[in-house]
UniProtKB/TrEMBL annotation:
Belongs to the glycosyltransferase 2 family. GO terms for molecular function: glycosyltransferase activity. The chain crosses the membrane at residues 249-271. It comes from Cyclobacterium qasimii. Residues 7-179 form the Glycosyltransferase 2-like domain. Keywords: Glycosyltransferase, Membrane, Transferase, Transmembrane, Transmembrane helix. InterPro entries: Glyco_trans_2-like, Nucleotide-diphossugar_trans. The lineage of its organism: Bacteria, Pseudomonadati, Bacteroidota, Cytophagia, Cytophagales. Pfam families: Glycos_transf_2. SUPFAM superfamilies: Nucleotide-diphospho-sugar transferases (SSF53448). The keyword Electron transport does not apply. Coiled coil: none annotated. This is Glycosyl transferase. PANTHER family: GALACTOFURANOSYLTRANSFERASE GLFT2, RHAMNOSYLTRANSFERASE WBBL.
Length: 302
């Protein structure tokens, strides 16, 4: 029986050492029918050594940094597989990862996305992701299941979850053809949550599958306390809520954010004397609040 082609898509942005480690881990996978696509988002360092070391890799060189959504979209546009595995370059995978994810995807026509268990690379017995609650429409926040718990087998049952983790998303091509590519207005953070909402609105399910796993080197490409993260987390939380929460509920959303979340977060930066983060957070809030044309039409693929 012919096994369907799986297109593995990852983004490289000034992280060649991580991308090389990622590609090395994929040399150990047991699934036989794979294409690997690396999208370089205009890195300062040349990505050509990827092809020197791994000549079968499909390398796309973006002329500019198109962010998480744009980079993945460029990969999906050229992918030939029946399934897309969007995965961060700062990860390493278990050898059976593709068989396990494909097996779950084939169990039902309703499966729109599958996410494996995600463990921390530096502490592989600590869970980063084992499912996720829905985003609260008032606060704009959700809760990760199993987050920072020691992995003792307590999250070993596959189940429908509300949101995937952007570090590893296995998606049938038919779903992407139906709903379109990811929204590129986010650039960084919240785009995978927005995409999950669109997948669910189309009648599909998001699944957590713990039979296999990836190891994640958490935020190495951005930094755990970077100004970039502060800005885009602030901006994109608002964009997500504006796109996915509707009136009259959005009145309560705006009230909570203006009266509680915004002053609380700004005060935290004041007490820590983190004035650069204060300015980035407030600018992100304003940009997310006043950005026009937030209902961009999704781009479809053939």
């Amino acid at each position: 029986m012919n096994k369907p082609l799986i297109s593995v898509i990852t983004i490289n942005y000034n992280g060649l050492i991580h991308t090389m480690g990622f590609l090395a881990s994929f040399q150990k996978i047991t699934y036989p029918n794979v294409e690997i696509i690396v999208v370089d988002n205009a890195s300062k360092e040349s990505p050509d050594s990827i092809l020197d070391e791994y000549p079968d890799t499909i390398l796309i060189k973006n002329p500019e940094n198109e962010g998480f959504a744009g980079g993945n979209n460029r990969g999906m546009e050229v992918a030939k597989g029946e399934y897309f595995f969007l995965i961060n370059n700062d990860t390493e995978v278990a050898p059976d990862i593709l068989e396990v994810l494909l097996e779950r995807a084939l169990k039902s026509e309703k499966v729109g996305l599958v996410c494996p268990k995600i463990l921390y690379h530096e502490e592989p017995d600590i869970i980063q992701y084992a499912g996720f609650s829905a985003i609260n429409p008032i606060t704009g926040r959700g809760k990760g299941k199993g987050y920072l718990e020691k992995d003792e087998g307590q999250h070993q049952v596959a189940e429908i979850t509300q949101l995937a983790h952007g570090a590893a998303m296995f998606i049938p091509k038919k779903v992407v053809k139906e709903i379109g590519l990811m929204a590129e207005l986010y650039f960084l953070y919240y785009e995978e949550m927005d995409y999950c909402e669109r997948i669910k609105q189309a009648g599909y399910e998001i699944w957590y599958e713990p039979k296999s796993y990836i190891l994640h080197k958490e935020s190495m490409s951005v930094g755990k306390n970077s100004l970039l993260k502060t800005y885009y987390m602030s901006r994109n939380r608002w964009l997500y809520l504006r796109r996915n929460v509707h009136y009259p509920l959005f009145i309560f959303t705006a009230g909570y954010y203006l009266l509680v979340a915004l002053p609380k977060n700004l005060l935290v930066y004041v007490f820590r004397s983190e004035w650069d983060h204060f300015k980035k957070y407030f600018k992100g809030f304003l940009d997310g609040l006043f950005l026009k044309d937030i209902k961009e039409n999704p781009t479809l693929i053939n």
